[in-house]
Amino acid sequence: MCGFLAVQSGARPIARRDILAGLAAIRHRGPDEHDVWLDPRAGVALGHTRLSIIGLDNGRQPIASADGQVQLIVNGEFYDFERIRAELEARGCAFRTDSDSEIALHLYREFGTAGLERLRGEFALVLYDAAERQLVAMRDRFGIKPLFVAEHAGALYVGSEVKALLAAGVPTVWDEDAYVSRGFYLGDRTLFRHVRSLAPGHILTASPGRVRERAYWDLDFATAQALAEGDMGEAEAVEALRAAVLEAVSLRLRADVPVAVYLSGGIDSSAMLGCATHLREAPLDAFNLSFTDDGDYDERRFAAEAAAFNGARFHPIPVAQDDLADDFEDALWHNETPFFNAHGVAKYRLSRAVAQAGFKVVLTGEGADEMFAGYPHFRRDMILHNPEGQDPAVLRELRERLAASEGGYGREALPADAAWMTERLGHGVSWVANQAGWFDALQRLYEGGLRARAAGIAPYRRFYNGLDHTRLSGRDPVHRSMYLWAKSFLPNFVLTTLGDRMEMANSIEGRVPLLDHHVAELAARIPVRHKIRGATEKHVFREAMRPFLPDALYRRKKHYFRAPPATPRREDRLSQLVRDTLASRALEALPFFDAGAVRRAYAQATDLPPAGQAALDPMFTEITSLCLMQRRFGLSSDHSSGPSAGGSLEVAA
After folding, report:
1. Strand partners, 313
2. What is the mean pLDDT of residues 486-504?
3. Which of 2-16, 257-271, 537-551 has the least mean pLDDT?
4. In 3D, which of 589, 583, 574, 575 has the Cα closest to residue 629?
5. Residue pLDDT, tens place only, 625-640
6. Long-range pairs for 415-422: beta carbons < 8 A, 24 or more residues apart
7. Which residues share a beta bridge with 149?
8. What is the mean pLDDT of the chain?
9. Are 500 and 215 in contact (CB under 8 A)?
10. Rounded CA separation 368/142 (Å)
11. CA distance 442 to 616
């Protein structure tokens, strides 16, 4: 993995020092080497900072075509690149490096942007075609790798992280609308005005005066009718899935450096360890986060069992609440979005430990819950809206349990716009009900003017209107719920806070076999009844991975990865950080909240039982994060007071 920054300014030249400043801000993404290419006449610059994984000795970027007309920079990995390279060489393409990245250059030269759609992996790329005066940016299908875009002062900026764009000249200003509309989770917004993320599975092309964007791939669940007519049996699904996952893992074991595994103690990462061990026929190194302050959150014993089952070298990394406090602000700077739990900070510490152990590449288990309906809210959707193919007696018991726990299931009191979206869908979406209630509670703490503005914003209507509705039409309710999640919280939270940003903060490349698009396309053709079997989530995945799992992990229910909450009653440094930040002047300086209302809510929380305090922890952690972000980034509330972070357009130095 690497980091990059590109600027297209029309005919005006760009200062090399601005590109170098942007690369310096993301040097953690590629500490091995960096380079800059400039075309002063066209007003285009590409900068790249490299973490060498494949082609260690000759993979420096930007990579130029033989005639110098096309320049390429890549963050990520292309899998199965040897086969594509051989095909291109048979067509007469001459390769100048051993890097997997170079295939993108030749695919573009041979087939245009359509050729880039053959790329497989976790990646973001930018290339510049001098003959066409065209800059092309592309992001992988699920948004595993970040790619940010800004238009400012007549220039287009494209970079791996927001901070690179800010350092190169984009103003550092809050986007208040993106916050109150939750557009930084539900859409392509960021909390920085001017800056947005390129949507997963999209290609952007920019020529002077024109920027266009199109989708080249999207998650496409089979229609309910197609699933019924296809009637994929369980045995067929299990066999096909096992083969697809093994292939995806095998491709991701290809590296010129050692590969390790993140091992959480759940079935997803344990299955990745099992598959990799089976393929390598040799022990691997497995790293586990162990929360030492609270046994309810510590999964070490399950991870140790998976490691022992596979003969892995087991490395538990102990993490205390005091440790999380010490690294909270640094991890937040890397994340560029607020935390609602300190588990992102824990991943930051885990990645640092892995880097200190000498590794650059890890396999992770992210994506199983998204592809195989592993979250409890998907199971709830099945019980309420998608019971086809389930055992009637089991379903009846599940409905009785749900009714008892919720006082009458399915009776959410939704905000108007969330209710509008569920009416359009024709059924409820459990995760939307949970999130909408949380957003509504947070909105009550806004300062008066912002609260009035927020009342006129409909986050879920905006979200729904921005979707490709052909991917929803005729689909089963659970698949619709999964699609909505994949278009919002998967790229904007799971793959950010628990993925790339905390890994690359320490120069660690995370590889995600379960989000290989071949695996995803197979999963989209598997019926809901095979994904959720009664009370068992990820049923088909469990069965496919059973040979690679110890029995305790095979039978284990979903356990959310969370750090212990920082509640008012705790005396550790993390709880003290939250307490001190909410009591400080930083809260008054924040443009979003009524400081008095926040402090009253926090004081009232001290009288709640532990479960009640834990329920409010995400809200106070998010507000604390925003206070620290404002200070760390120097964020302002308007253009006039925002730091310019260096002029972006000037005569080249």
Report:
1. 285
2. 96
3. 2-16
4. 589
5. 999 999 999 999 874 4
6. 415/439, 415/440, 415/460, 416/458, 417/458, 417/459, 417/460, 417/461, 418/460, 420/458, 420/460, 420/461, 420/464, 421/460, 421/461, 421/463, 421/464
7. 158, 196
8. 93
9. no
10. 13
11. 10
- Write down the residue that tokens 């948004």 correspond to: 143
Q: What is the DSSP string of 579-597?
A: HHHHHSHHHHHSSSB-HHH
Q: Are 340 and 621 in contact (CB under 8 A)?
A: yes
H/E element, 318: strand 313-319
For 431-493, the DSSP string reads: HHHHHHHHHHHHHTTB-HHHHHHHHT--HHHHHHHTS-GGGTTT--HHHHHHHHHHTTHIIII
Mapped to the 3 state alphabet, what secondary structure does 226-278 carry? HHHHHCCCHHHHHHHHHHHHHHHHHHHCCCCCCEEEECCCCHHHHHHHHHHHH
Specify which residues 137 forms β-bridges with.
126, 204
The pLDDT score that the predictor gives to residue 558 is: 80
Q: What is the pLDDT of residues 197-242, one digit of tens each?
A: 999 999 999 998 899 999 999 999 999 999 999 889 999 999 999 9
Lookup: tokens for 361: 């590449």
Model pTM score: 0.95
- The two structure tokens encoding residue 286: 């497995």
Q: Which of 488, 515, 508, 522 is nearest to 122 (CA)?
A: 515
φ, ψ of residue 144 in degrees (nearest 5): -65, -40
For residues 397 and 400, give the distance between their C-alpha atoms in angstroms, rounded to a whole number. 5
Closest CA to 216 of 145, 306, 116: 116
**Which of 305, 250, 204, 256 lies closest to 56, judged by CA?**
256
Cα 559 from Cα 376, distance rounded (Å): 10
Q: What b/e sequence results for 420-443 when a residue is b if at least 16 CB atoms lie within 10 Å of its CB, and e otherwise?
A: ebbeebebbbbbbbebbebbeebb
| Tally of helices (H runs) and strands (E runs) in the chain | 32, 17
Structure confidence at residue 59 as a pLDDT band (50, 70, 90): confident
Q: Pairing state of beta strands 313-319 and 285-291? A: parallel
In terms of Cα–Cα distance, which of 510, 511, 553 is closest to 307? 553
